[in-house]
């Protein structure tokens, strides 16, 4: 594991393997360990895989207040500059996918490809923005444990909680360990993100869109909308997965990602 001093904070990251770089961005309220299966799989396949703890999460610096998606995107470009990497395939899940879209808005020249998993390009409605802010306040009052226990069966499909208990335990542990101040700051910043739908027609790099059939946070319809708007994109709908197909259906997710990377 390595650390980077950037913009007054410390970013903890791993950089494994050689070959063409693949950068993976975790969702909320997780950390880079959600990508451990893919780091192992794709370094073995000859990729250089980079996964960082976003500011406010994992072992990176916790910054209270509001953290806009632009800040996360600039942290990522700072990491790429530090590593001497020009262009990457950038993949993210849920909030991580929205950070990928923000990165594309700011730094399209740094991209070779996009992976958008379990995410949405739409801006929040006023009601959803209010709900995110209320959740941020709740996390500061209560910590992450009550929230984590409330949403675990939306993050991981109930049948997968029974059949893949080690996955459910990992997901629950990540959520409970998330620093409340960092998670709340991300929620507030995420509530203010722009709408990316109009930008999608201008995406000029190969794009993979992935979603689970049982995802209650970002339904299949949201993935299909992005697929329809992004020229030449590939859509993979993964049966039996909820919000975390890379963990719930690792074989299927990895196969989709491998086909995508091989075709670049």
TrEMBL record:
Q: SUPFAM superfamilies from the xrefs? A: alpha/beta-Hydrolases
**A family per Pfam:** Abhydrolase_1
Domain called AB hydrolase-1: residue spans: 21-248
Q: Which GO terms describe its molecular function?
A: catalytic activity
Specify the protein name. Pimeloyl-ACP methyl ester carboxylesterase
């Amino acid at each position: 594991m390595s650390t980077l001093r950037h913009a007054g904070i410390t970013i903890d990251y791993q950089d494994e393997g050689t070959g063409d770089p693949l950068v993976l961005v975790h969702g909320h309220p997780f950390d880079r360990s959600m990508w451990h299966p893919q780091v192992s799989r794709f370094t073995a396949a000859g990729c250089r895989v980079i996964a960082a703890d976003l500011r406010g999460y994992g072992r990176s610096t916790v910054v209270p207040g509001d953290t806009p998606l632009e800040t996360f995107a600039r942290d990522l470009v700072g990491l790429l500059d530090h590593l001497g990497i020009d262009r990457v395939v950038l993949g993210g899940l849920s909030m991580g996918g929205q950070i990928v879209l923000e990165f594309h808005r700011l730094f399209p020249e740094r991209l070779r490809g996009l992976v958008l998993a379990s995410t949405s390009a739409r801006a929040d409605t006023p009601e959803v923005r209010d709900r995110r802010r209320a959740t941020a306040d709740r996390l500061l009052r209560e910590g992450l444990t009550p929230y984590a226990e409330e949403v675990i069966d939306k993050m991981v499909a109930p049948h997968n909680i029974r059949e893949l208990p080690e996955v459910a335990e990992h997901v629950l542990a990540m959520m409970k360990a998330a620093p409340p101040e960092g998670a709340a700051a991300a929620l507030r910043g995420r509530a203010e993100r722009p709408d990316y739908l109009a930008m999608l027609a201008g995406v000029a790099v190969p794009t993979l869109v992935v979603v689970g059939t049982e995802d209650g946070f970002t339904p299949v319809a949201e993935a299909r909308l992005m697929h329809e708007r992004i020229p030449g994109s590939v859509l993979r709908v993964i049966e039996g997965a909820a919000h975390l197909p890379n963990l719930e259906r690792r074989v299927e997710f990895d196969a989709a990602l491998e086909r995508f990377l091989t075709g670049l």
